[in-house]
Structures are given as C-alpha cells and as structure tokens.
Automatic annotation (TrEMBL):
Organism: Plasmodium falciparum (isolate Palo Alto / Uganda)
Coiled-coil stretches noted in the UniProt entry, renumbered to this chain: 8-126
Record's protein name: Uncharacterized protein
Alphabetic keyword roster: Coiled coil
Length: 132
C-alpha cells in the first residue's frame, strides 16, 4: 500500500509540476499576446499617420494637377496667340510686299511722267527754236 501511496504522491507531484508549467506557459503566452497587442496598436497608429500623410499627399497632388492644368491651358492659349501673331506677321509681310510693288509702280510712273515731261520740254524748245 505504501508503494501505491508513494506512486500516487509522485503522480500528484508530477501533475502539480505539469500544472505549474502550464500556468507559466500560459503566463508567457498572455505576455506575448499583450506584446503582440501593443505592437499591433503601434502599427495601427503608424497606419493612421501614414493614411493622414497620404491624404495630404493626395491633396497636394490634386493642387499640382490643377496648376498643371492651368499651365496647359495657358500654353494652349499662348500657342494659339503665337499662331495668330505668325498669321498677322505673314499678312503684314504680304501687305509690305504689295506696298513695295505699289511704290515701284509709282516710281515707274513718275519716271515715265518725267520722261514725258522731258520730251514735252524738248519739243517746246525745238518749237521755240524753230520759231526764232
């Protein structure tokens, strides 16, 4: 009976030791869970900060896009004005050519008039000489 009692005591002691180990292990698990929860909380806070920064970046991107759109519109207007100016410049050049041609014609006509006047003067002189 003593052997059974000793064996039972030893088994009871083993069970108590196992329970103690299980409790310690459970404590470690609980500590790990607590650490994991704290780390998850920090990660969540970081995620929140990242989200806020991303939102600010998105807002800045939107502003940049709006400014780029305005710049594009201004460039388009500038290109249109540039084309208008080039067309007007061509018209001015064509008009200047016409003015130059007209001036050349006027010069030719004046030359002819002078020549005719010279001829008339010569004829007058000749007539006057003949009269004398």
């Amino acid at each position: 009976m003593h052997i059974i009692y000793t064996h039972l005591l030893k088994s009871l002691k083993d069970i108590e030791d196992k329970e103690k180990q299980i409790e310690e292990h459970q404590k470690k698990i609980d500590e790990q869970k607590k650490l994991i929860n704290e780390k998850q909380q920090k990660i969540d806070e970081q995620d929140k900060i990242i989200d806020e920064k991303q939102q600010k970046l998105d807002e800045k991107d939107k502003i940049i896009d709006e400014k780029q759109q305005k710049i594009d519109e201004q460039e388009k207007q500038f290109d249109h004005k540039k084309i208008e100016v080039e067309e007007k410049q061509k018209l001015v050049e064509e008009k200047q050519k016409l003015v130059d041609e007209k001036q050349n014609l006027i010069d030719e006509i004046q030359k002819e008039i002078k020549n005719k006047q010279d001829e008339i003067d010569d004829k007058k002189k000749t007539i006057e000489k003949k009269k004398k």
